[in-house]
Design goal:
Blueprint lengths: L1 E3 L11 E4 L10 H9 L4 E5 L14 H14 L5 E6 L1 H12 L4 E7 L9 H9 L1 H11 L3 H4 L10 H10 L5 H11 L3 H6 L4 E7 L11 H6 L4 E5 L6 H4 L1 H11 L1
Parallel strand pairs: 2-3, 2-4, 4-5, 5-6, 6-7
Antiparallel strand pairs: 1-3
Helix pairs in contact: 2-3, 4-5, 4-8, 5-7
Length: about 250
């Protein structure tokens, strides 16, 4: 598994682990990674198997991804850490924090819901016509305003950047990721097992994981800190990166 940065971690490190979503890679975390590195905190931003620079094939389940990350952490002798996950990555973080709760200092779930059911037609497109699936994920992954611009950085096209990122994913990666999300179960019971500080960052205009579908999950945590970004859709790190970073600083 590839991870960035690859610099040597400090002794007794308790890093922040960033876990990306479907068809993406570690590059979606550029702003928070740079911030926390400047603050002298250890960071691991992952490319999950089959994604980005990571070799191999995408895995078939959320628990398999969690097991793979635990193996990496154990190899690095990392006993304590914090977790940040977006979309599929939020389910992986939930799985990790519930299965070994004593190891987790804090957890931030971005663009999350449970169950994270995937439309059957979208799954079929991901299997047989991935370009059409990417078009749907990109369109539904952003708020109305973001689809027609709204980026404060001149020359940056949010939706097309995300489309290109997903187009770089390997064969069957997006299908496997969506299937893993759809098949993930027991999320509410797992949330009740988490002892770490819990934060959720949710987009009010999220069409892929609507705010209402996170309600049961929110209620299953012990005293979660829920942040809502009014003008953002599902891809919050691109639509409102500064606000996401401000919220992450509060919990990490």
């Amino acid at each position: 598994m590839f991870y960035f940065p690859t610099n040597k971690l400090k002794k007794n490190s308790q890093p922040i682990i960033f876990i990306h979503g479907t068809g993406m890679d570690h590059s979606v975390w550029t702003l928070p990674v740079r911030h926390f590195l400047r603050k002298k905190k250890d960071v691991i931003a992952l490319d999950l198997p089959g994604h980005g620079n990571s070799p191999g094939k995408a895995l078939s389940s959320i628990s398999a991804y969690a097991t793979k990350i635990f193996k990496l952490l154990d190899e690095e002798s990392i006993s304590k850490f914090s977790l940040v996950g977006h979309s599929m990555g939020s389910l992986i973080a939930l799985e990790m924090a519930s299965s070994q709760p004593s190891r987790v200092n804090a957890i931030s779930l971005i663009g999350t819901a449970f169950p994270m059911q995937v439309n059957e037609q979208l799954l079929e497109f991901a299997k047989t016509d991935v370009d059409k699936a990417i078009d749907i994920l990109t369109f539904m992954g952003y708020s109305h305003q973001a689809r027609i611009g709204r980026n404060k950085n001149p020359g940056m096209w949010m939706t097309e950047s995300t489309r290109r990122l997903m187009q770089n994913s390997g064969k069957n990666v997006i299908y496997q990721d969506l299937l893993a999300c759809s098949n993930f179960d027991g999320g509410l019971e797992k949330a009740k097992k988490i002892s770490a500080k819990v934060q959720l960052i949710l987009g009010v205009n999220d069409f892929l994981t609507p705010r209402r579908k996170a309600s049961d999950l929110v209620n299953s945590f012990k005293d979660p800190d829920v942040k809502e970004i009014k003008d953002s859709g599902h891809t919050l790190m691109m639509e409102d990166p500064n606000k996401v970073l401000d919220y992450l600083i509060e919990v990490l």
